[in-house]
Design a protein that fits this description.
- The protein is mainly α.
- The protein has one domain: ABC transporter involved in vitamin B12 uptake, BtuC, CATH 1.10.3470.
- The chain contains 12 helices and 2 strands.
- The chain has a two-stranded antiparallel sheet with strand order 1-2.
- Helix 1 runs antiparallel to helix 8 and helix 2 crosses helix 8.
- The N and C termini lie far apart (about 40 Å).
């Protein structure tokens, strides 16, 4: 019983990381109708920026804030310099460009910082919490991670549903021509969408890296599972992204605990294939569509 509780709560903690990546993908998809395969590379690069600040200042929160700010800037730059030229091209062009951007960012990180593995500090203690003698399988840092991701998901849901900025993002995604006629500045809206997604990616990077190591390809597997979480929940739904991330995290925690860590990624890819075959629009897509 104790193992089951530990695996469940531990899965919720790592699932929050998948949810953060899924949220960044949902934001770009809902705002621009582009799947950003470079999101993991962007998260990795901003985490290096945080590591650099922390190394020089010794202050975790300074690195945390700088990482989020650099995520905003990097997202805006990528949209302006890389994605904007493909705006009137076929959707496949954007896919290829984002893959190229991923390769570029990982190569650039390797040139600047080297390929060695680096440790990254956590915001709070990673020692497991206990109630009496009963281990819960989560730490104070896991609680901070879950709270940060839930706050980001709530903010994103409120942005899309109740603000004029969210309305402009949705209008730009579904009908840019009509939105432009109604006075929406399409270019600025697209840049904003990518900037916010860059911020969410940076959040995911600084939250997950304390449990792994930092190196140029460190976010690749996390991105794959974050993408899986977005597909499970539906690319239209911020709430679905969080639910998909937590569901996937718990499932893979059971797999890693009972079957071994070597098959975790395999089961994650199997979950992605299963959802795409049974319900490709996502488990919560229908509810999201009614709310829009």
């Amino acid at each position: 019983m104790q193992e089951f509780v530990e695996f469940t709560l531990g899965g919720v903690g790592i699932g929050a990381i998948y949810a953060a990546i899924a949220l960044s993908l949902v934001l770009i998809w809902r705002g621009t109708r582009v799947l950003n395969y470079a999101q993991g590379g962007m998260a990795m690069f901003t985490t290096y920026v945080a590591w650099l600040v922390i190394s020089h200042t010794g202050n975790y929160w300074a690195g945390f804030v700088v990482a989020l700010a650099s995520g905003l800037v990097l997202g805006a730059i990528c949209e302006r310099a890389v994605i904007r030229p493909t705006e009137r091209k076929t959707p496949l062009n954007s896919v290829i460009v984002t893959i190229g951007l991923l390769i570029f960012l990982e190569g650039l990180a390797g040139i600047i910082y080297g390929g060695q593995y680096r440790s990254f500090p956590s915001a709070y203690s990673v020692s497991g919490l206990k109630i009496g003698g009963f281990a819960l399988g989560i730490s104070p840092d896991d609680l901070f991670t879950a709270a940060a991701v839930l706050a980001a998901a709530l903010a994103l849901a409120l942005l899309f549903r109740y603000t004029s900025v969210g309305l402009r993002l949705r209008a730009t995604a579904f009908s840019p021509g009509v939105a432009r006629l109604l006075g929406v500045r399409i270019g600025r809206v697209l840049t904003l969408g990518w900037a916010l997604a860059g911020l969410l990616g940076a959040l995911a990077g600084v939250l997950v890296t304390p449990t792994t190591f930092l190196y140029p390809n460190s976010m690749d597997s996390i991105f794959v599972l974050g993408f899986t979480a977005a597909v499970i929940g539906g690319l239209e739904s911020p709430v679905g992204a969080v639910c998909g991330g937590v569901l996937l995290g718990v499932l893979l925690s059971y797999v890693g605990g009972y079957l071994g860590s070597d098959v975790v990624l395999l089961y994650g890819l199997a979950a992605l294939a299963l959802v795409l075959m049974i319900r490709p629009s996502g488990l919560l897509a229908a509810a999201a569509a009614r709310r829009v």
